[in-house]
Amino acid sequence: MADQATPARGITRREFLNYVALASMALFTAEVGGAILAFSLPRFREGEFGGTKSIGTIGDRLPPADSAPVAYADIKTWIVNIGPEAASKGGGKQGLVALYKVCVHLGCLYAWVDSNQRFECPCHGSKYQLDGTYLEGPAPRDLDRFAVIIKDDQGTTIAQTVTISGDPNYGAPIQIPDNASNYTIVVDTGNKIDLGKRHYYTGGA
Amino acid sequence: MSMTTKITLGIVLFMIIFVATGLVLLNEGVLDSQARDGTGRMQIETRAQKARSIEAGALIFYSNCRSCHADNGEGIPGKGPSLNPDLFTKHFPALQAAKTFNGTLHDFIKLTVAAGRPDQSTYADSLGGFVNPMPTWSQQFGGPYRDDQVEDVVNFVLNWQAQAAISPTVPSNFKAIGSDLATALPTGDAARGADLFAQKVRFKDNNPAHCKACHSLQTDTVIVGPSLAGLAARADSREPGKAAADYIRESIQNPSAFIVPGNANFVGANGKSNMPEGLGNNMSAQDLADLIAYLLTLK
Amino acid sequence: MRLEPFATLNDMRKQYGIRKTILIKVDESVERFTAGLRINDVRGVLRGDPPAKPNPRVKPHTEGAWFHIWPTFYHEAVTKFYPTFKLGMITTIFFIIEIITGLFLMLYYTPAPGISYDNMLRILSTVPLGQFVRDIHRLAAEGMVIAVWLHMGRTFLTGSYKKPRQFTWATGVILLLLTIALSYTGYLLPWDQLAYWAVTIGASMADAFPPPEVGKAIGLLLKGAPDLGAGGLLRFYLLHVFALPLIAIIFVFVHYYKVIRHGHSLPPGLENIGEDNARKVPPDRRVPFLPDILTNELLWFGLIMAAMIVPIALNLYHAPLEHAANSQSTPLHTVAPWYFLFVQGWLKLGDKTFWGVIFPTILIGLLLFWPYIDYNPSRRYGDRKIALMAMMVTIGLLVVSSYMGTPGFSVVTAPQLEVGFHALPPEQPGPIRSIAFDQLLVGTWSTQDPSAVPGNALELQAVMREIKSEIDSLPKTILVNNQPVNYFNMYAELTIEVAQGTPDNPTLKHIVLAVHWDGEPIDLVRNQPGYFTDTFVHKDSKYTASGE
Question: DSSP of C124-162, one letter per residue?
Fold first, then answer.
C-alpha cells in the first residue's frame, strides 16, 4: 500500500507534458465558461429601454430649474430639474432627476399638466409634484426614478445617482455642477429607484 | 402480501384508472351531442372563459370608460358617444354603408379602444362635438392595458349587442323643456335634484343626468367644466341683472350664453361653450326646477 | 468457401409441419425481443414457476438494454415497505409521468408573454383531456417535490448515506435541488398572476446575491432583462423543458448506478457496525427481479396513477389558473411556492442577503457534505441519538419557518383590506363569486342584519354571515408606525345591481363590497367614505368551489 501512495520517481517528461495538456484544456474550458456567460448575459442597445441612454448635453437638454419637465418616450422617462421652489414643496433636495414615466398606481402613463404645475395621471387621478413626490390620489408612493450619470466631454463620470438602497442619499437628485453645459446626461433605465413610500406635500409656497 | 394478492390489487387499480380516465374523456365534450348541446366540459369551459373575459372588461369599463360613455354605454353629451345602442344601430351600420371600414364590428371596437382617436371623434360633428378625443388604451400605443385586456373590453361592449340593447323608454306624456327659457318653472324639490345629480333617480324620460361627468362638487377641481362647489354663492353675481336661479337655468339650457372666464378649456374650437347644447331635451320642466333647486343649495 | 447446408423454411415445413414451423419462428422472435426469454420461459414467469437451470430469467438483465439497469435479484430485507418506503421508486415514477405529460403539454404551448396565457386557456377549453393532462403534470410535480424530501429524510433516518454511499447521498442532494428548480421554473410558464408574482419574489432573491454587481448579473442571467418579461419566460422555459431535465436525467443515472453498485443498504439492525453486506446476499434471501420485484413496481405505478387520476376525475382537484400576469398589479398576500415558504419565513427575520442567500447556501453545503462530516460509523438508531435529534429539530424548524412564511404571520394589513381580500379575492373565486348566480339578489345587504336576506337566497345569507364573522375576528386596533389606529364598529355592505341584460333575465351583475367603520377616510376614486371593492359576475362564469 505504501509504495502505491508515494510516487516511485520524480516527474517524468511525459507526466509533465500531460499536466501541461490538462492545464491548457482547463484554460480553454474557463474561456468557454466566460464565453457562455458573455453570451447569456443580456445587453441592451444604447438608447433601448433597460440600458443606458445618452440624451444630450446639459446645456441643450436640461430644462430650466422649476420649469416644465421634458419627456423621452423611448426610454419612458421625464427629465426634471428641481429648483428651489419644487424642492421646498417636495422632497427638499434640488437637482436633476429622471422619473420613470409609469404611474406607480396601476401603470398608466402620467403627464405634466402645466396649468396645475404637477404631474397628473389620466386614469385614476394620482397627482405628483415636479420632483415626483406624492401629492394626492390612489397611488401608494412617490414616482420611481432612474439612475442618472453625468459625463464630461471626455466621457469621464462626473456625478451619478446613489443607487445603494439604504443610503441616506439613495436616489437623491444630482446637483448640477458649475460650467456643466457641455456635460452629457446619461439615463440608466436598467437601474430603477423605488423610494418606497409617500413623501407627502410638505407645504411651502 | 402474496403475489396473487398483489396481482389482483394491480388489476383493481388499473381498472380504476381505466374507468376514471374513460369517464373524464367521455365528459370532455368530444361527442357530437355534447358539442351540439354545449354540455361537455370543453364547451362549458369555453363559455366560462368568455364570461370571465366579459367580467374583466366590465371592471375596466367601470373604472375607465363610464366617465365618458356612461354606466350602460348610453353615452354622455359632450363627453363620449353612445355605444349602447347607437354604435350597433347607427354608427357602425353607417360606416358599413359608406364602405370606409371593411373590418368587423369587433375589429372596429378593438381598433378604437386600443389606438384611441387621433383627434375629436369622427362622430363629433353630428353629435355636437366632444371635449376630448378617445385616449389610447393598448400598451402598444402608450396606454395602460395589455392586448388581452383590450379584448376583454371589446367582449364586454359586444355583450350589449348580444342581448338587445336596453334603451330607456320615454313615457308618452313626457314633455321636454328644451331651450325654452320663457316658461315659468314649477317649484323645485332640492332633494330630488340631489338624487338626479347623483344619478340615484332619472329624468322623467328615464335618462340619467350627466352633470357630474364634467362638474365636480369639490372646490377648485376641474374635471372638464368648472367646479359647482359654492355655485349658489356666486351665481347671483356672474351676470349683471340675472338672479342666481335664472343664471343657472340659462347655463343649462343655453350654455354658450355665458362662459365662465379663466380657463381656455371651457371654450370649444368654435368659440362656443364646451358644455353640450340640447341638455334640456331630456328634462321636463319639473326636472329642471328640481336640479336648479338642488344647485342653489351648493353654498 | 463452401456453404454448409442449412434448413430452409421449406425444409422445416417438411420436417415439422406448418404449425410447428411457425411456432418455432415466433418463439425465436420472442426470444430476441425479450433478450433471452422463450415463450415457455415467459409463461413460467407469469405462472410463478421456479426458474429453470440455468436460469433464463437473468438473460434480459445481461443482454437487454432496459433490464440491465435493474439487478437480477434484491435482498429480501429491502423488498419490504420498511426500510425504503419505496420513496426513490415513487420519485422516479413521478419524474417519468412529468416527462410524458410535459411533452404533450408542449404541443400547445409557446413561451411568450401575451401568447402563453392564451395557450393555457386553449389547453383548458379546446384540447380534449387538456385539463386532465395539465392536472396530472401539476399533481405529479408537487408529488415529486414531496417524495424527494421524504426520500432524503428516510436516507438520513436509516443512516444509509454512510460509507460507502457518501457520493450517492451527494448526488441525491443535487437531485433535490434540481427537482425544486424544475418545479419552480415550471411554476412561471402559465404566465398568470400566481406564476408571475411567485417567481418575481423568488427571482428577487437572486438579485440579493452579494456583492450587488454579481447579484445583478445573476438576476439578469435568469430574467434576461431588468424585469421578468419575454426574456425571462423564454429562459425559464428552456431551463424547464431542456436544460434541467437533461441534467436531472444524467444525475438520476449516476445516482441509480451508485445505488445498484453498492446495493440497497440493509436495515441497520441486520449487520454489524461498519459492515456492508448489501451485495452479499445469501441464496435463500434472494428475491428475483422477475417476476416478484417487477410486479411490485407495477403495483406502485398503478397506485400512484390511481391516487392522482381519481381525485381529478371526481373534480376534487384542478390545477389553478389565475388571471393573466400583470406586471403592474401585485395581488395582496402574494407568496412564493409552498416549498419555498420556509425561505420566505426567514426573510421576515431580517436581511435579504443573509437569510435569502447566505444562510440557504450554508445549509445546502452542509447537506451536500454531511456524509463526509458525520464520523459516526454506526447506522443503528441507538448510536445516533444526536444525529436523529438534529433531524427532528431541523424538521421542526422547517415547519415553523414555513408557517412564518405564510401571509398571516407578522404582516399587518389594514382590516378593511383583509375583508375585501377574503370576500372578493382578486385571483380566486372567493365566497361571493361562488354564490349561485340567481341567488345574487339585486339590492343592498348589510352584515349588520344578515337575516334581512330573503329565504330564497340562503347562499347569499350564509356569505353575509361569513363576512360578519370574519370582521368580528379581525383586530379592532392595529399599529401603524407605532401609532394605534382604531377600526371600531366595522360592517360591510354588499350592493348588487344588474349590469347587463334585463332585470328579469340578467347576464352580468355588478357587485360592490363596501366596508365602513368609525372614522373611515374618503375613497379617492369614488369620493365617498369607506373602502370599496368592485367586481362583476357573469351567469356563465362557473366559479365552482373545488380546486380553484
Answer: HHHSTTHHHHHHHHHHHHHHHHHHHHHHHHHHHHTTTTS
